Structures are given as structure tokens and as C-alpha cells.
């Protein structure tokens, strides 16, 4: 660690997290347990939290403190698919027992019990190592229990409440901590504090793993690929969409994604694209819009603190999609009401624009009805002049100045 190489006396880990992957949390805890210098964990600033995996990290600290108006807990493990392993323990359940809930298969029941019991044993072992409240640790895992800073200090979950890092160092001064197989008394009064901010990679990962940002990246990727499919050779939508999609998928693997919601989003976007390619006066589009909106709401497991896509963003995108659908339907109905003309009389009196100059009784190219036509005119006209169709002879149009 950089702090160890720089000769630090202690490491202060300031934390505000809704949780994260169990594997990442265990790596952090393992590093703290193997540290040659004490690690002081502070949940700060006010309004911060040490939820889910953050609870384990707080328990692993040699000194655990929380700022006022912070909270800790809700440490029940949640699979990435978004299903809680077991029902949280209800009030009155015996300690060490999990609530019951219908399970689709005995194998899933056994696997869920193993995950939950492993998490309980892990957090209890950290509590016993640091001399903290092991009974509440089990409640935090089995029943998703939470505590405020004052309640946590009163119940022995943390050592004390500290306003900030200087207050933490002042209150930790003179305390004895266990560092491996020896005891160490902290002497922290008046020591210099050096900050180690996250590097660029960590900050970037922190941004893309925000549920709302990951959701927007996923949408940008899907829309980019759809635009590339509708306009082959545009390149930019396809390249940008592919990058956004891959980055969004990387972010989603770190979040508790509900795959039913993800499938509904994909179905919805597919139906909306089908409506744009083959209009059905709204039948496919309305179904796609409903599937997309429902899937967006379901995408993240809302039971996990902090892992929710902003509903305002979902509503804004749904409104934009609804407006686009209404425009497509309006254009389809308008086209169906337009008088259709065929054969030569239909082109008579049509207007066009010369793409190149034309000489008297000479031939040139003009844009008529959005198509390139070879035209012939009795008088010379410059490029860009407006012309009117007089008659058609095969693939040649006779025109005159408009």
C-alpha cells in the first residue's frame, strides 16, 4: 500500500457506500486484516452510509467510527440476479434461524442457505476479532437490520461517533488495538494527515457503476446499434454504440441486475424498432413502450440500498419514446391520406431542381420527387434552377422553367 511505503502510522478509510460485490469486499477486508499498520474506518460525511458490503468493511477496521446522521447495516447478501437468498428474519425469529419463503427447487434452497450462513459466519468472525457486537452482526445479515451512528455506538457496533477525521484521530489517541498477535497503543495526537484520493481509473469505474449511468450507457449502445442497422455505413453510431454497450454491460455485471427486467427492455426496444421499420399504426410501438418502461423499473433490485435507476430518467426516456412513436403514427396516417398518383399524369407539373446546368435541348440530371432523373429542356438553365415536368418519355423527363 502507498501509505505503508510512505511511512504512515495509521490508515484512515473514509467510507460512504451502498455496498458492492462480495468478492471485492472480501479482498478489501483481507487487505485490512493483513495490514502491518492499524486501519481506522470512518463512515462520513453526515448522510453517508456503510450498507451491505460496507458493514463488513466497518467491522474489519481496528477502529470503527461513524459521523452523526450516518447509518450502517442491511448486510443481507443479494445475488447478482436480484433474488434475495432467504426471507429476512421476522421479529421473534430465534437467533441463528432464517425466515422461510417458497423456493422453486431444493437445490436453490440449499444454495441460498449456504450463501446466507457463510455471510453470517464471516461477519460474526470479524465482530469477535475486533470485540464488537456479534449478535447484531447476525441480525444485519439475516434480517437486514440497520442502525444510526448513535445507536451503533450504544450497542457496541462501533467504537465511537466522530465528526470528521481530526475528531477521529483525537478520540482514537491512546486506544489499544490488536495488530496480528500483538497489542499496539495508538499515539495520534498532532500527527500530519495526508490524503490519497482515488486514481483516475477508480473514479471512472465509480462513475460508470452508478445504476443510472449504466442504464444510460446500455440504452445509448442499443440505440447506436439500431441506427447503424437502419443506416449501414454510417459507422459512428455503430462504433459509439458498441463501445457504450460494452462499457454498460461491464457496469451491469457489478450491479444487482434483474435479468427479467433486462429482457423486457430488449423486447421493448425491438418492438419499437420494428414499429419504425414496418409501421403498424402503433400496435407494436405501444407494446414496446410498455415493455421498455416496465423493464427499466425492474432492471435494478430496488431492495438493495442505492442501487436504483433514477425514475425521472426512466420517465423522461419513456416520454421521448412515446413522442417518437406518436410522430411515426402521425406520419403513417398522413401518408395513407395522401392522394396516390401513378403513371405519366401523376408526374405532370411536378417540380424539381437541376443538379447541373443544361443547354438548349440538352440533357442533364435533376432531383424530382427525391429521385435523380435525366431531364431535357428546350431552353438553357443553370444548375440549381427550378423546373416543372412537362411529360415523360420512358426514363427521360421533359421539363421547363418553373
TrEMBL record:
Composition bias, Low complexity: 89-102
Recorded coiled-coil stretches: none
Record flagged with keyword Amino-acid biosynthesis: no
Membrane topology: Multi-pass membrane protein
Pfam family, one: NfeD_membrane
Organism: Fulvimonas yonginensis
Keywords, sorted A to Z: Membrane, Transmembrane, Transmembrane helix
Stretches that traverse the bilayer: 204-226, 257-274, 281-299, 311-333
Gene3D superfamilies noted in UniProt: 2-enoyl-CoA Hydratase, Chain A, domain 1 (3.90.226.10), Nucleic acid-binding proteins (2.40.50.140)
InterPro entries reported in the protein's UniProt record: ClpP/crotonase-like_dom_sf, Membrane_assoc_protease, NA-bd_OB-fold, NfeD-like_C, NfeD_membrane
Chain spans, region Disordered: 78-110
Domain NfeD-like C-terminal: 352-401
Official protein name in the record: Nodulation protein NfeD
Domain NfeD integral membrane: start-end pairs: 212-330
